[in-house]
Structures are given as C-alpha cells and as structure tokens.
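User: Show me a protein chain along with its predicted structure.
Assistant: Here is one chain, sequence first, then structure tokens.
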Amino acid sequence: MRRHQAFVKKYLAGWVRAVRKKMGLTQEKMSESLRMSVRSYTDIERGKSGFSATTLLFLLSLLPDEEIVRLVHEFRESIKNEEEHEAV
C-alpha cells in the first residue's frame, strides 16, 4: 500500500501543478480555491505531502467533467504501466 500511496502523491503533484498553470492561477489563488494554506498547497505540488479526501473533492469541483474523466483515465493507465514495469 505504501508504494501506491507514494505513486499517487507523485502523480497528483504533477497533475495539480499542470492544472493550476493551465487555469492561469498562482499557488496562492489555487490554495485559496482548495480552502487550504499556501504552505500546505506548495507541499502538495512538491510531492512532500498528499491530498486529503476533502482537498481532492475541492479540486475536482473546480474542474470541468472532461478534465475529471481525463484525470481518472490517465491515472488508470499510469498505475497499470507502473505495475507492469514492476512485474518485469
């Protein structure tokens, strides 16, 4: 389970950074939108900490439906590739 937690943390860190930049938001504005401190948010972007369920739901509420589907689809493919790579 720990390896999956680390993978999810790293995956979401890159994804949320890309989404923030695509939306044209600063880290301060993004953290405000997620109802969290700037420090906590930057820790997520750096992969130092992970999302809480609450924060993840706030993030999903900011996104259009197609972006949510893309996030889940890309995660599914990424974890599948990661697990296949580990099996080799």
